[in-house]
């Protein structure tokens, strides 16, 4: 019997997200949405899940996920955005790729063990 090796990827949350008031300020819905994005992020805080993937992980409709993402992108902590979004084009006319979301260090979330710059 062949054993499949499981790849385990993780992100960590610093307790400062709680002690600083970030979690309380952003509320459960934005925090939940942020955590879903974080599950896709790389060591630079970037991720590019499809809206369908985000919706599936949240257990909501695609349209609801899109509204949540817009609210999260508009949210500011200490005057700074915690998530930014960049649209990408695929080769070919009028074809868009998945958005690229960047989670800022202010989120207090980090991929793996590598320390992120807080610039």
Commentary on this structure:
The protein starts with 10 loop residues before the first strand and ends in an 8-residue tail after the last strand. The protein has a three-stranded antiparallel sheet. The model has no long low-confidence stretch (mean pLDDT 83). 35% of the residues lie in helices and 17% in strands. It is an alpha+beta fold. It has helices at residues 16-19, 22-38, 51-58, 62-74; strands at 11-13, 46-47, 76-77, 80-81, 83-86, 100-103, 109-111.
The largest sheet is: 3 strands, antiparallel
Which class best fits the helix and strand makeup? Answer: alpha+beta
Strand content: 15-25%
- CA radius of gyration is 15 Å
Q: What is the topology?
A:
Elements: E1 11-13, H1 16-19, H2 22-38, E2 46-47, H3 51-58, H4 62-74, E3 76-77, E4 80-81, E5 83-86, E6 100-103, E7 109-111
Helix pairs in contact: 2-4, 3-4
């Amino acid at each position: 019997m062949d054993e499949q090796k499981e790849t385990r990827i993780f992100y960590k949350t610093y307790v400062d997200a709680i002690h600083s008031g970030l979690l309380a300020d952003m509320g459960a819905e934005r925090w939940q949405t942020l955590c879903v994005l974080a599950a896709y992020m790389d060591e630079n805080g970037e991720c590019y899940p499809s809206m369908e993937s985000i919706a599936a992980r949240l257990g909501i409709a695609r349209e609801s996920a899109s509204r949540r993402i817009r609210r999260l992108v508009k949210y500011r902590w200490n005057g700074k955005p915690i998530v930014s979004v960049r649209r990408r084009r695929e080769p070919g006319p009028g074809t868009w790729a998945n958005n690229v979301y960047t989670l800022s260090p202010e989120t207090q979330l980090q991929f793996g063990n590598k320390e992120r710059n807080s610039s």
